[in-house]
């Protein structure tokens, strides 16, 4: 084998040839024990495997997406027609995704960060904090379809009728409000977990340094701790956004999964749309796939490609936040 | 013995060459290079002078001294362990007070009690009094107290923002950002200047503070503590993470600061205590064993335990 250790010459150990090494000062893995080398090889292979899978998905969607995506699809809503050239694009679905993402994360981010700050920085009353912790873990484990069913119960109540279409006293219970509220629960545990991780990574003496110049806890949280944990908060928000724009069950059950916006008559501009039903890209991909009602796979690829681009853009954005934080530096040891 | 004919793999050979354990050596009759462990320590402590005859003392006699704080029968315990046992001592402006003692002797706990940082530890229980200008600190609102008695920590811990903002954060009202940069500039500059850092960073005030060197970071932390214009400055082993050059810069700074603020420094480094302190408090197992001027405590301590500690017999 290439990496075997050179056989030592007979005689005193001083004459023994040193193990072969690469150019650098780092020890070559060739000098390692066989089991270490095997382990390394397995890790390498697994890493390569996942890179290959991810690359295949991206490359396939890239090819298909570029082949089928037309800029006009992004601005024309879906319409009824007999051939794929007549059925328009998916602008309503695209905007639907943007709306639920914006509304969902704007609920989940402040709530999640608030809960994480409470759990890490205050944690009192301790019993209540423990209950909250396990509740959030439970929410993280609930399938979104179950959350969706629960959402229909809540948002069909007459008290919340103003959040969705209502006719003759019957609350429809499906709207952007309802879907976003439930989707924020999907994102919340990710925001909480990531923010907690960020706060826990800050050494205790840094907090004390702030208290020791007479700052209150809340000032320390606002000006020192949260800005320091920003990369982790951003990661949590990104993961949450990814879950929100990727969810289909809540969209089908709580957004109505219509092909187009269905604004409620008699409401002012944004509320008319937000109270109405709608659709998102994930639902559009499902409907346009061969199993769906539309059965126009080319548009499914195009929409899936747009979804993928959105996720990649989110990743890039988080990367920028992390890189900026790295410039600021961190505490030694 | 067949395997000896072919050259054994290197690891096995190393094992064969390993010297037998040291324990087996001793019966062969006291190898001269192995000094007796206990003898090595006791011979290092000649007479009553300890190891400080050659140490440089960078601090002169105090010009004046004003009593700022008074620790009066203070005891602190964590859960079931008593960390500080009924300690009383004065803290004076115009002087540097050093607290020495082995790890876990309660010196840091005592220091943290002076600005009520111990209260952040949930299990901590306090009894006794600490007076700041004749007012019991328990009666002073903690954030107000901590602006009058500021602290510098063992690890340099500038906030992850620019050099300027690190100081400005202290000057601003709690979490607000109301005061603009221009309004704070003079105060920020003077705080950096008092910590002897201004000349080095004046062109880079916008640079991230965590990109400074360790010694500069620690001086920034001192500048931050001084920006609140405190009456007492607490230093918890401020040089333990620093190299000798940075340590000397900070020691010189500490000596310089004693006229403006009462300085209390906790240190593991006996030489450092001897170099910078006017008064030294030796603590052991939570008790204040001896309090006296540095020359007395290191030169001719009254207590046997102090004598043993400063001469290196334990600790």
Query: Number of helix segments of chain A?
Result: 12
Helix content bin of chain B: 25-40%
Shape of chain A from CA axes?
Answer: globular
| Biggest sheet, spatial arrangement of strands of chain B | 6-7-8-3-9-10
Strand content of chain B: 15-25%
Question: Largest sheet of chain A, described in full?
Answer: 2 strands, antiparallel
> Greatest interface and its residue counts?
A-B, 35 and 39 residues
Question: Would you kindly provide a written description of the structure presented here, covering whatever features stand out?
Answer:
The complex is a heterodimer of chains A (333) and B (315). Chain A has 333 residues and is mainly alpha-helical. Chain A contains 12 helices and 2 strands. In chain A, a hairpin with a 2-residue loop joins strand 1 (166-167) and strand 2 (170-171). In chain A, helix 2 packs parallel to helix 5. The relative contact order of chain A is 0.13. Chain B is α/β, with parallel strands linked by helices and 315 residues long. In chain B, helix 5 (163-171) packs across helix 6 (181-194) and helix 8 (214-227) runs parallel beside helix 9. Chain A binds chain B through residues 5, 7-10, 13, 16, 19, 203, 205-206, 208-216, 218-219, 222-224, 227-228, 325, 327-333, and chain B through 7, 9-10, 13-14, 17, 115, 117, 120, 143-147, 150-151, 153-157, 159-161, 169-170, 174-175, 208, 210-211, 214, 221, 224-225, 227-228, 234, 241.
């Amino acid at each position: 084998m290439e990496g075997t250790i050179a056989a030592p010459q007979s005689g005193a150990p001083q004459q023994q040839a040193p193990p072969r090494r690469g150019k650098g000062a780092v020890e070559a893995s060739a000098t390692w024990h066989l089991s270490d080398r095997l382990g390394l090889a397995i890790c390498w292979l697994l890493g390569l495997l996942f890179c290959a899978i991810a690359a295949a998905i991206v490359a396939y969607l890239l090819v298909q997406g570029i082949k089928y995506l037309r800029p006009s699809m992004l601005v024309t809503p879906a319409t009824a027609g007999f051939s794929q050239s007549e059925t328009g694009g998916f602008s309503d679905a695209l905007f639907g995704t943007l709306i639920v993402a914006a509304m969902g994360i704007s609920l989940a981010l402040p709530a999640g960060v608030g809960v994480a700050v409470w759990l890490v920085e205050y944690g009192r009353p301790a019993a209540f904090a423990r209950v909250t912790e396990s509740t959030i873990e439970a929410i993280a484990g609930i399938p979104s379809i179950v959350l969706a069913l629960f959402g229909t119960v809540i948002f069909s109540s007459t008290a919340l009728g103003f959040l969705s279409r209502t006719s003759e006293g019957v609350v429809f219970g499906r709207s952007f409000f309802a879907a976003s509220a439930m989707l924020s629960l999907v994102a919340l545990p990710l925001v909480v977990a990531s923010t907690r991780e960020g706060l826990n990574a800050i050494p205790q003496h840094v907090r004390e340094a702030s208290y020791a110049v007479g700052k209150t806890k809340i000032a320390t949280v606002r000006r020192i701790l949260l800005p320091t944990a920003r990369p982790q908060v951003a990661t949590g928000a990104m993961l949450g956004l990814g879950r929100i724009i990727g969810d289909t069950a809540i969209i089908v059950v709580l957004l109505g999964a219509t092909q187009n916006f269905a604004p409620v008559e008699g409401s002012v501009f944004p509320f008319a749309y937000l109270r109405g039903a709608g659709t998102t890209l994930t639902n559009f991909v499902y409907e346009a796939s061969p199993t769906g009602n539309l059965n126009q796979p080319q548009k499914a690829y195009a929409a899936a490609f747009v979804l993928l681009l959105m996720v990649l853009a989110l990743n890039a954005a988080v990367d920028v936040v992390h890189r900026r934080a790295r410039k600021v530096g961190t505490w030694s040891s | 013995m067949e395997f000896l004919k072919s050259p054994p793999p290197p690891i096995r050979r190393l094992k064969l060459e390993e010297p037998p354990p040291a324990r087996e050596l001793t019966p062969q009759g006291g190898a001269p290079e192995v000094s007796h462990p206990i003898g090595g320590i006791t011979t290092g402590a000649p007479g009553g002078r300890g190891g400080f005859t050659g140490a440089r003392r960078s601090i002169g006699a105090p010009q004046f001294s004003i009593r700022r704080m008074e620790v009066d029968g203070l005891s602190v315990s964590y859960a079931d362990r008593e960390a500080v046992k009924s300690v009383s001592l004065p803290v004076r402006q115009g002087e540097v007070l050093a607290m020495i003692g082995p790890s876990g002797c309660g010196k840091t706990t005592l220091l943290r009690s002076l600005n009520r940082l111990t209260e952040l530890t949930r299990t901590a229980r306090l009894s006794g009094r600490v007076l700041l200008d004749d007012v019991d600190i328990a009666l002073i609102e903690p954030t107000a107290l901590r602006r009058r008695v500021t602290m510098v920590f063992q690890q340099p811990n500038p906030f992850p923002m620019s050099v300027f903002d690190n100081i400005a954060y202290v000057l601003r009202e709690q979490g607000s950002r109301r005061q603009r940069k221009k309004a704070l500039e003079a105060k920020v500059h003077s705080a950096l200047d008092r910590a002897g850092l201004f000349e080095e960073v004046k062109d880079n005030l916008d640079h991230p503070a965590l990109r400074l060197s360790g010694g500069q970071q620690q001086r920034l932390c001192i500048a931050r503590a001084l920006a609140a214009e405190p009456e007492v400055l607490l230093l918890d082993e401020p040089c333990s993470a620093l190299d000798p050059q940075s340590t000397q810069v900070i020691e010189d700074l500490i000596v310089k600061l004693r006229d403006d603020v009462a300085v209390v420094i906790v240190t593991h480094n006996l030489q450092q205590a001897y170099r910078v302190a006017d008064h030294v408090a030796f603590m052991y197992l939570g008790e204040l064993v001896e309090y006296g001027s540095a020359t007395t405590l290191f030169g001719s301590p009254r207590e046997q335990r102090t004598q043993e500690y400063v001469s290196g017999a334990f600790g």
